[in-house]
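in:
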């Protein structure tokens, strides 16, 4: 990559992700290999105070355009994404959780959709969930994984300008789950156009230790996030 600023920054929050991070990074680098020479890119892995080899694995990709940041205290995915955005230099932002994958062709399709938008916009695609091959059979039997694709209104399925992210503001670090609902509500309140393409742009790995599973006790965050969205809209209507 040249000395000029990259056009695209890809932020990957990671916590105890040593089992999955290599696959996540390879899926991102396969996409940037297609568009990278023309677009310019950087990949930023934010290790959220992991207790395993996550940081060492990320650092081993340094020669392939990957930067690694280590947060001294675990702050959750919202804090890790915010840390990555603060370090980003690109005009455009994309995200990927360290246990998920980017399918082939996703980056070019989202770039095209975003470029065709007439107003400040956030481009999204669809997601598909899959059972992790490493999951033990008992855990797999307990989990219900929907078949087919669904609209991917989540950080890993979106693309937007960094300046627009900064205008919307950071993810709420007080929310362990539901932080995207709060953020997306703010984006809608500001009038951002939402572009949804039919293509699958995110493969979400279900392995039984996902963030929403590990933090079941914090599910009240969803209610609090939705309440913030509704309160803002009522305030604006008044």
């Amino acid at each position: 990559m040249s000395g000029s600023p990259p056009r695209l920054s890809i932020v990957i929050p990671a916590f105890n992700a040593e089992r999955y991070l290599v696959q996540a990074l390879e899926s991102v680098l396969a996409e940037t290999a297609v568009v990278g020479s023309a677009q310019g890119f950087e990949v930023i892995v934010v290790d959220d105070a992991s207790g395993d080899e996550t940081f060492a694995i990320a650092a081993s990709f340094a020669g392939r355009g990957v930067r690694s940041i280590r947060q001294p205290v675990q702050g959750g995915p919202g804090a890790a994404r915010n840390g990555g955005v603060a370090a980003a230099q690109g005009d455009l932002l994309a995200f990927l959780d360290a246990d998920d994958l980017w399918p082939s062709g996703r980056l070019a399709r989202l770039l095209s959709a975003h470029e065709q938008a007439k107003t400040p916009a956030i481009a999204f695609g669809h997601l598909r969930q899959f059972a992790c091959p490493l999951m033990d059979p008992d855990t797999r039997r307990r989990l219900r994984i929907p078949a087919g694709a669904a609209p991917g209104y989540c950080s890993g399925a979106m693309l937007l300008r960094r300046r627009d992210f900064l205008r919307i503001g950071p993810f709420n670090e007080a929310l362990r789950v539901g932080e995207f609902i709060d953020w997306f509500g703010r984006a809608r309140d500001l009038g951002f156009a939402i572009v949804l393409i039919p293509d699958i742009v995110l493969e979400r790995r279900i392995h039984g230790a996902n963030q929403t599973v590990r933090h079941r006790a914090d599910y009240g965050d969803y209610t609090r996030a939705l309440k913030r969205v509704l309160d803002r809209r009522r305030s604006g209507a008044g």
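note: The first strand starts at residue 8 and ends at 14.
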